[in-house]
Amino acid sequence: MIRSMTTAVNTMNQLQSQFDIIGNNLANSATNGYKSSEANFHELLYQQFNNDKADTAQRLSPPGIRYGVGAALGPAKMNWTVGSLQMTGRELDFALTEPKQYFNIIMPGEDGEQTVYTRAGNFYVSPTNGGNLMLVNGDGYPVANSAGQPITFTDNVKNYNMLPGGVLEVTHNDGNVQQIEMGVTTLERPNLMSRLSDTLLALPDNVAELGVAAGDILTEMNGANRNRIGMENLKLEASNVNYEKEMTDLINVQRSYQFNARTVTLADQMLGLINNIR
Asked: Within a 10 A sphere around the Cβ of 183, how many other Cβ atoms?
C-alpha cells in the first residue's frame, strides 16, 4: 500500500507541472508572438516480477508484472508554427511570416547589453537625448538593426513602410527617405534557448556545457540571407495557442490527477483496515 501511495504522489507532483504549462499557454492565448509549450510524460524506473517457473498456465498478457513508481514530465518543447496574422493597420506593427525568425532586441544584462529575441512586433518610438526617435518594443527596449545597433531616426517622420528583405523605409516630412535593415535572427535550435519572459528568448548561459557553439543555435539574417526574411507591417502575429487542444489536455490532466488522488485514498483506507485487524 505504501508503494501505491508513493507511485500516485510522484505522478500527482508531475501532473501539477503540466497544469502549470497548460495554464501558462491559456493565459497567453492573446499574447502576440507567443509560442505554446508542450511536454509529454515518461515512465520512471520499474521493477519486473517474473511468474513462478512452476506456473505454466497460458496467458494473453505479458509474463510477469512490471511495478513502476509513477511517471515524470519530460522537457517542455515549444511549438514553433507561425500564428495567424492579425491586420492592425498600424505602421509600427510588424509580423514575421517565416517560422523561427525573430526580431533582435537590445536588453541590459548583468555584464552589459545583450541581444534577446522576440516575435512580438508591436513597436513604438521613444525620444532620445539627441532629439531623435528610437524604435523600441513594448517594454521600452531598443530594436536592433542588422549591425546590432539601436534603430534611430529624426523626429520628422511622415510614414513607415516595410520593404522585402526586412528593410524599414522611413519617409520624412521633407521628402527624404531612410532605409534601415532590421535585425532578424533565425533560431536553428530553438529548444536550446532560455525563455526570459512570455515572448523574449536569449542564449543560455551554459552554451559551452551543452557542447554547441552560438553559431550552431543562431543564424544572423544578413547578406544573402536577407532574401529569406518574411516580414510585413500593418500586421501582428497572434499566439499559436490552440485553445481547444489546451482545454482538452486540461480535462485529461485533471482526470489523471483525480485518479491518482483516489489511489492515495484507497491505499489509505486499506492500510486502515489492516491496522484494525485484531
From this structure: 25
Pair 63, 201: CB distance under 8 Å: no
CB 183 within 8 A of CB 148: yes
How far is residue 132's CA from residue 115's CA, in Å, rounded to a whole number? 22
> Which residue in 10, 8, 11, 25 sits closest to 249, CA to CA?
25
Q: CB neighbours of 101 closer than 8 A, spacing ≥ 6?
A: 119, 184, 185, 186, 187, 221, 229, 230, 231
Q: What are phi and psi of 84, to 5 degrees?
A: -65, 150
Q: What is the CA radius of gyration of the chain?
A: 27
Instruction: Compute how many other C-beta atoms are within 10 angstroms of the C-beta atom of residue 26.
Output: 16
Q: Provide the 8-state DSSP code for 147.
A: T
Nearest Cα residue to 120 out of 199, 190, 194: 199
Q: Is the dihedral of CA 53, 59, 61, 62 positive or negative?
A: positive
pTM of the model: 0.81
Contact predicate 79/36, CB 8 Å: yes
pLDDT digits (tens, 9 = 90+) for 31-84: 999 999 988 777 666 666 776 666 677 777 667 776 666 777 878 888 989 999
CA 103 from centroid of its chain's CA atoms: 15
Helix orientation angle between 243-275 and 2-27, rounded to the nearest 10 degrees: 160
Contact (Cβ atoms closer than 8 angstroms) between residue 156 and residue 173: yes
Cα distance between the two ends of the chain: 19
